[in-house]
Amino acid sequence: GAVVSQHPSRVICKSGTSVKIECRSLDFQATTMFWYRQFPKQSLMLMATSNEGSKATYEQGVEKDKFLINHASLTLSTLTVTSAHPEDSSFYICSARNGDRPYEQYFGPGTRLTVT
Amino acid sequence: SQQGEEDPQALSIQEGENATMNCSYKTSINNLQWYRQNSGRGLVHLILIRSNEREKHSGRLRVTLDTSKKSSSLLITASRAADTASYFCATAPNQAGTALIFGKGTTLSVSS
User: Which of B42, B48, B100 sits opposite A110 (nearest CB)?
Assistant: First the structure.
């Protein structure tokens, strides 16, 4: 149980285009989903927290207009990187929290974004 | 915001030796978790220790937690080349529903 998927696993896009990453909880309802970013040889940095049906809360320094997060259902959250630039190239990892277990998170396998 | 600090940043050992990684954090927590990440891959959950626990074992892993010092350690015994990876501690703040906060990680290299 508690499986989280991400799609795509890898994406290459050209500078200036937008990319959408999906995060799905497969066998539970995710009342909260989190998006992290990880640069090479660094740790995971929290970008934003999204609760189903409400606006995401972004961490300091994360541009909300650039990283659009939608959590329209209890099993799906999407992260759209708008007008991507090479410096947005990173590993994006989502995680989901089951409302029954407020202190546990389940992580997706990550999406490798490369902007050329 | 990262609140966990791990040391060492990098650790190189021989197969069969034990590896110890330490993690310190800043605020009160509900639990602390350790994850492994192979290069370019996703996270693998290793173990969770709750704030009212002091020690936990899972196979070759032993985790300790000292809430008075706000620190934890991960011991991998009889290491194998396959243990080569980055290891991260992550703390779950006491506020329910808030995100895990990751430490900077320790890169472990086990040579045969």
Answer: B42
